[in-house]
Amino acid sequence: MTATLTPAGRADAPASAGRDRRAALPRAVLRLHRTALVVGAVLVGLFTLLLLGSLLWRSAYSPAEVAACGTGSGCPGLNAYETAHTVYWSLLNQSQNVLLLVPLIIAAYAAGPLTARERELGTHHLLWTQSAASPVRWLRSTLALGSVAVAVGAVFLVMVFRTAVAPMEGVWGFGGWEPGGYVGSGPVLVAHCLLGLAFGVCAGTLIGRALPAIFAGVAGTGVLLLAAGVARPWLWPASTLVAPFTRDRKAWPSPGDGAWTADAAVRGQWLVTGDGARIDPESCYTVPGGIEGCGVRAGAETWLVEFHPLSHRLPTQLVESGLVLLLAVLAAGAAFLVLRRRTP
């Protein structure tokens, strides 16, 4: 009777090797793009330092101290507060514009250095060979790690912006329904950043050349951002205000009437005739008699205002985020489909 001796662990060797290769793939992606991660973290940190630093500087002067100064020009506390408030106001105003550019920057990097550059230089075959990964697995790991990094960074930016804008919410065009304030105050920024990543990866995989892919990724993401802004007022049912049209009420209704508040976003205003026809008041400026004459001749009976109060912002953001994430999934799926057809 003979016995066959098997070296210990030999049976588990293939499974262990497979796990090692799967673990090595994310590490390879991180090493390849570690510079971009560091630069992104530094930029997010700088954004946080400037915005929250200016907020802390402004908060160092209490309202009571500022009020005690009155309007005297020789009061150093008042002058110092005005300087701190000006810096805070300027940085907060510019931050709204910066947040609108973040998805475009992500799309540019995803289209160029993340995907297309490897194909343009021919290094993608070497990467797939050294990492022992198929092209689909390499793209899956790249997209997964990129999505985590982008989502974490975007969530952090939203938290920083919401903290900084809190004292000025709805004042002087900050926050509220302003494009930058709207995007930076909720999940919409995260969704748009993920869309920029997915669209950039799709453009880079499809085109395969860095500069054209960057142009296509940025242009496509920008068009989708503009389309989202145009469709935004129609993503959630609007509140309405109906006011009578009479000779003593010939001017447009104004915020403060009913539930229409100053921080609301107006979707449209019309004159409504007895049979329900809507007349755009702006079309009445070119006719004799202005709005009053136009309304009288058309038989207008009421004003109709459709608007979104600030309470509609969160549900609108959730609907928009869902639609944008759906587009991101479709773009990522298109990238995988193209890659499967082009590689054995």
From TrEMBL:
Keyword Transmembrane annotated: yes
Key words of the record: Membrane, Transmembrane, Transmembrane helix
Chain segments annotated as transmembrane: 36-57, 98-117, 138-161, 181-207, 214-235, 318-339
Name recorded for this polypeptide: ABC transporter permease
Organism: Streptomyces albidoflavus
